[in-house]
């Protein structure tokens, strides 16, 4: 039987997409810096992508172990990789549905085998599994090996809460009905009101049996088995939502989960080689550059890209545009207007990928045209940059609601049904040069203070983080039969929140 004075040892497994991996890595570093042993697990494919991107930038420290440098600094972070069920050459973006089916039905067997080996061999013994909420099998694996099960939600608590109450949306005809209702939704616990257009794309869909829908249904059944839920959000920004969730399960807001010294990450975890934009930015006036990026995963149509490109061209503003080669599709990489790059060469820079935090923290950046991914939203707030919102998929529509309607730190790129270059030009020109931007900047600074305060020594996120670590230890002791275990005092108060 394990000695209860031994260090807690957590296996961590992110969902295999950039937006999930990033906060998982930073959480691993934070837990290790507080005395945890961590075994971090990536898929073979993700490991290969990160290793290749680092090799191209000549910044690879150890191609077989992404955490070698972290260990040299004294952190006990081990590293393992696991087969996701597909060969490295398989195009996971082009064959998205087939890949997701594999994550649903095949991946668990490979991960189960790895966990079994780690449980048998690791010292200190493994006591905890911290898994991405979108996996459908962590509850089963945690039970099998008698591990504390922590579900890590990398998006806002509002999005989690809406998925958690899918049955309520279904019962009221706002989801999974022949003709989804369009009136305001005002019956979700912890959500005062939300419009159907602000629901996640999967809850607005008419086809509700796609592979991703099945992932969501199973994941939010499995979540009920979690001992602890942690969210990459801030209590003060989503207090009512978190209070409602805590009536069901202990749920802690521990975000934003950033590395210390946010503008300089401890090591690269990018899936793509990152362009250095600093020299170009150094030659531009303060707040004169619009940063444009639609993230690491979502796709958009060639038609929309052409309208955005034309609008940027007409606006006359300086910009950096991150354009992934697969932004439309892996097999369609020619999507810009003829002559576009030549026409904007003095004021525009187009790169396939970049060090986003380093770019948006540069004084030359004055705004961010974004897909509203949650990491991008938090990073932009931290850097004091207002947002132009162009959501494409999943949680991004709900994140836009928080940005535009609730916190008032951004605007919509398009208010019409179809995006047009005329509207893009008008919105970008007004955003970069108009009076509204000053109001947005002021609002962003206020929200940034909330993030800063939450991460302070007596802040809500820091207190929740320490309570979360205590809960893991209590749960591990309980599972080992070393104590009866005690529910955290925060959860006993009925809301799981510090005051």
Automatic annotation (TrEMBL):
<dbReference type="Pfam" id="PF00201">
    <property type="entry name" value="UDPGT"/>
</dbReference>
<dbReference type="InterPro" id="IPR035595">
    <property type="entry name" value="UDP_glycos_trans_CS"/>
</dbReference>
<dbReference type="GO" id="GO:0080044">
    <property type="term" value="F:quercetin 7-O-glucosyltransferase activity"/>
</dbReference>
<comment type="similarity">
    <text>Belongs to the UDP-glycosyltransferase family.</text>
</comment>
<keyword id="KW-0328">Glycosyltransferase</keyword>
<protein>
    <recommendedName>
        <fullName>Glycosyltransferase</fullName>
        <ecNumber>2.4.1.-</ecNumber>
    </recommendedName>
</protein>
<dbReference type="InterPro" id="IPR002213">
    <property type="entry name" value="UDP_glucos_trans"/>
</dbReference>
<dbReference type="GO" id="GO:0080043">
    <property type="term" value="F:quercetin 3-O-glucosyltransferase activity"/>
</dbReference>
<keyword id="KW-0808">Transferase</keyword>
